[in-house]
Each structure stands twice: as structure tokens, then as C-alpha cells.
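Moderator note: this is an archived Q&A kept for reference. The question asked for a predicted structure of one protein chain; the sequence and the answer are reproduced below.
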Amino acid sequence: MNYREQLNYLLQRDVSFVLNDKVYKKGKVLIYAINDFYLYFILKVDNKQNKTFEIPVPFDIRKVGNNILFDYTFDTLSRGNMELYFKLQSITKEKSAKLYNTLLNVIVE
């Protein structure tokens, strides 16, 4: 499946964006957009408000069972190039970079 098919699967579904075993965002996906290097989701949250949620485009998106996994890991980015992998590992992490070398799990409820 390509990116759009994976993202279309999330439309009109209640989802939880889970990062490091913590719910990052939760709501019903009304629509998404891809602009430059970001994914934008409009979520309908419990209090019936619409919230915009933006994340960088992941290096890979794959379906695992009923869930979608957004992969931001260096292993996926380097695609087996060990020299690139070790150079990426040497970059210092900024405190505000929550998705740095992680997996974001989108759990479909």
C-alpha cells in the first residue's frame, strides 16, 4: 500500500496517536492533508471541537493489523547504509523533537 491508501484507511475512524506508550492525540480523523514535509490531520475530539494536528511526514508508513505505524527511526531512513546510520546517531537530539528516532503508533479503535 502507498501513503495515501494508508492514510485513507484512517478517515472517519476514531484513532489514538500513541508515542512511547502514551496517548499523544486522540479523536476521529475527519480529513488529512500533505503539505511540503508535514501531514495535517483535522481531528474531532470528545468535546465536539475540531483540532488540527500536524506531524512531519514519516520515513515509512506501514499497516500492522488494524493499526498504522509511522516510522521515524534512523534505521528506516538509512535503509541499510551503515555509514549514514552512524552519522545520524551522532546528531544531538533537541528537547522539542518528540518524534526523533521513534515510532508513532496510530491505533484504530
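Archived answer notes: The radius of gyration is 15 Å.
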